[in-house]
Amino acid sequence: xxxxxxxxxEDKFTYFVVRKNGxxxxxxxxxxxxxxxxxxxxxxxMNIVVYDSELCDKLRNRLKDTQWEKVIKxx
Length: 75
Prior knowledge:
By secondary structure, the protein is of the alpha+beta class. The protein has helices at residues 35-43, 53-63, 68-71, and strands at residues 7-10, 14-21, 24-31, 48-50, 72-74. Strand 2 and strand 3 (24-31) form a beta hairpin. The longest helix has 11 residues, at 53-63.
């Protein structure tokens, strides 16, 4: 039984499960919350304003029907 060789390291957003296998470390991470949900909670509060009219036109077309369309303001 090697289950006791696993260690869990925790930070604010992630659990890291690691073990030493010879001279190498093996592991994986488990996010505490869905990254997309976490990211868009933060991104929707960003204040991004684009003043360059040529760039505005390109971004409007490129970002149409994406979540970024709601975040970026054009002047």
